[in-house]
Amino acid sequence: MKQIVVIGAGVNGLCVAVQLAERYFNLANVTLISEEISPNTTGDGSAGLWGPYYCGKTPDHKLVKWSSETHVFFHELWMHGLAGKIGVCLQPCMRLTTDPNGYPEPAWKEIVFGCQKMTEPELKRLSNEHGRCYTGGYHFATFTCEPSGLLPYLFNRFIAVGVALGHKNWLEMKRCYQFEDRWHVSVLHGYTKLF
Ligand SMILES: Cc1cc2nc3c(=O)[nH]c(=O)nc-3n(C[C@H](O)[C@H](O)[C@H](O)COP(=O)(O)OP(=O)(O)OC[C@H]3O[C@@H](n4cnc5c(N)ncnc54)[C@H](O)[C@@H]3O)c2cc1C
């Protein structure tokens, strides 16, 4: 059996851990190590709205692939009657800009529902309402997912097939047990900004 360790039980670590533990159930033992678990992760304080944002230099094809998988995941939860339990709901959204160059057509336009370019009268009305000078934008419908429902759901899904060690600091464990050398484990960092 392969030994895989995922570090960090935020939304990223949990998603990775669930995917690996379910997909490689008979081939690998997956252990999740985390200093904090829900309700003390970043995601617990977030809005849970789907939408690529601050994506830096991530190429469009990767952005579309990854964000589309998340959208499909929310859609499936919603279709399978889990909306109430996990807090998935469809939300009308607008993205607007005051940039003189307007809002370029989003690469994720086909992922969301009914994405339409805002018309001049709509931009004028919103500009009046908000005291801004909007130059472009899109409206569409997408999902929000309540982190207080989603994170425990993912955690429970993981512990059905893997092992979770809470309140453990990976750096200390590594120092004390020379984890990677002794266990020959593959280590995946499921959290951001550790080093
Ligand atoms: C106010 C706010 C609103 C937001 N709204 C949205 C939104 O609407 N939509 C959206 O997509 N995003 C939103 N975000 C961003 C989103 O919440 C984060 O990008 C996301 O939660 C990051 O998850 P993560 O798993 O990478 O990190 P975290 O949730 O920070 O998880 C890191 C995990 O690693 C563990 N860890 C760290 N160091 C160690 C160590 N040495 N040993 C062991 N464990 C360790 C921590 O204990 C924690 O469990 C929002 C963020 C904020 C703050």
UniProtKB/TrEMBL annotation:
Entry keyword annotation includes Transferase: no
GO cellular component terms attached to this protein's record: peroxisomal matrix
Matches recorded under InterPro entries: DAO, FAD-dep_OxRdtase
Keywords: FAD, Flavoprotein, Oxidoreductase
Protein name: FAD dependent oxidoreductase domain-containing protein
GO molecular function: D-amino-acid oxidase activity; FAD binding
Cofactor: FAD
Localisation per UniProt entry: Peroxisome matrix
Domain FAD dependent oxidoreductase: 4-164
Pfam families: DAO
Family: Belongs to the DAMOX/DASOX family.
Biological process, per Gene Ontology: D-amino acid catabolic process
